[in-house]
Amino acid sequence: KNEVEQSPQNLTAQEGEFITINCSYSVGISALHWLQQHPGGGIVSLFMLSSGKKKHGRLIATINIQEKHSSLHITASHPRDSAVYICAPGGGADGLTFGKGTHLIIQP
Amino acid sequence: GAVVSQHPSRVICKSGTSVKIECRSLDFQATTMFWYRQFPKQSLMLMATSNEGSKATYEQGVEKDKFLINHASLTLSTLTVTSAHPEDSSFYICSARGTLDSPLHFGNGTRLTVT
Lengths: 108, 115
Known about the structure:
The structure holds two protein chains of two kinds. By secondary structure, chain A is mainly beta. Helix content of chain A is 0%, strand content 55%. The relative contact order of chain B is 0.33. Chain B is built from no helices and eleven strands. By secondary structure, chain B is an all-beta fold. In chain B, the strands form two sheets. In chain B, strands 2, 4, 5, 6, 9, 10 and 11 form a seven-stranded mixed sheet that branches.
């Protein structure tokens, strides 16, 4: 079973701040998802990563497969970024395991 | 982008009845669909994986006779909660992907309340 640790669990920041969320996992995988869950429950897949770095708008995700670690960064954070961010190692032939999520609040 | 539609978004049912939740991929063929459950303030938990035309694979601890999953076409999977009990009240969400290396696309979830 893949043990997934996300940090921080809760984060409150001011609008404009640079945000970093970290994820470590115990079992090697071929891919990892970063998900965003809004208060209503709906989930959006932000990234699927196999190696290196991906960027989409103000979001950047990195992964180090050897170290079993991934990070999600948000540049110029905005109140609409407030959500729960979930790290989910797995994908491809591997089933997903979900972290407990990071509750992010961006204050205006 | 790819869209997964899940219905209903909310359902309230009486104890002992059955509830069917649908998950449709609208603009791609979903060879694999996944069903998850999330209790309040807890992580998503994978319930089962279904491949089109095959029987679903259930995770340990998930009763296959209680949570019936059908994936009869490349665009539709259904989860039926049979003989629902209050402890089945939860948020159920599906996801779907096309090929093995495709990203996952999630439905908006179904909040089930069993009274």
